[in-house]
Structure to design on (255 residues):
């Protein structure tokens, strides 16, 4: 995928929704959106000269910490869409990046917002924004908002007893270019905890996920699920993954 930078500092490209990105109802899978968003983030940062190569030279790397996306009208197989991303600059310890997917005639289909940190690869320590702010020119910031508020903190509700939903041992197909688990894989595991009759028939409204501790090949991730009804008549699921009792991720899914 290759796109272009617009005058308002958005990185935009056109793509078709492929057969391997959709589910049995021919709708874009949430994990496929994750894949698209990650690649768009890399491409946009690279085009603006604070991407993978520039950070790698300094022994640093972008790491996704939080993400929320809303399906307004789920794209389907063979749809031709415009995908856009833009960064909104620092916000506390994070850098904020938004995403959108729109139809060719400009109708918004997906909105997303994400929070990133920069990691020192050798020490695995999170860098302070002041340490690298000079790498990211103010001129590249776009203040538009696909979603107004930053991606939220997600936790299993207090006082509930989640169900044990199984476990997953991290293997070759889970690992990304940094040698730890690809963020989209957590979404795959989480949605696979939900009964197929729900994921295959209901339309996902919102997915929020926090990545709290990195995992590596050989780690066993124990999965826990809690389900509740929403006030609007929908369904809400919380899925948590732990490695030896330490929370690796927590996800909230709303249908």
């Amino acid at each position: 995928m290759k796109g272009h930078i617009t005058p308002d500092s958005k990185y935009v490209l056109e793509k078709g929704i492929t057969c391997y990105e959709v589910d049995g109802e021919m709708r874009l899978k949430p994990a496929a959106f994750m894949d698209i968003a990650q690649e768009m983030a890399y491409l946009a940062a690279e085009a603006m000269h604070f991407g993978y190569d520039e950070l790698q030279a300094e022994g640093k790397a972008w790491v996704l910490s939080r993400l929320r996306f809303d399906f307004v009208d789920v794209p389907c197989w063979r749809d031709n869409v415009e995908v856009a991303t833009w960064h909104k600059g620092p916000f506390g310890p994070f850098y904020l990046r938004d995403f959108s997917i729109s139809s060719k005639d400009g109708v918004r289909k997906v909105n997303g917002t994400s929070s990133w940190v920069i990691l020192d690869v050798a020490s695995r320590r999170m860098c302070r924004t002041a340490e690298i702010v000079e790498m990211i020119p103010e001129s590249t910031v776009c203040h538009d908002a696909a979603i107004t508020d930053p991606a939220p903190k997600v936790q299993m509700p207090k006082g509930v007893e989640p169900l044990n939903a199984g476990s997953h041992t991290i293997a070759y197909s889970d690992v990304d270019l940094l040698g730890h688990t690809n963020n989209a894989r957590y979404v795959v595991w989480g949605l696979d905890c939900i009964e197929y009759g729900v994921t295959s028939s209901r339309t996902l409204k919102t997915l929020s996920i926090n990545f709290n501790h990195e995992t590596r090949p050989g780690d066993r991730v124990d999965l826990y699920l809690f389900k509740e009804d929403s006030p609007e008549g929908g369904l809400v699921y919380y899925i948590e993954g732990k490695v030896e009792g330490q929370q690796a991720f927590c996800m909230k899914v709303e249908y």
User: Anything to note?
Assistant: Residues 24 and 200 are 7 Å apart (CA to CA). The mean pLDDT is 94. The chain is about 15% helix and 40% strand. The helical segments are 30-47, 52-57, 129-132, 183-192, 196-199.
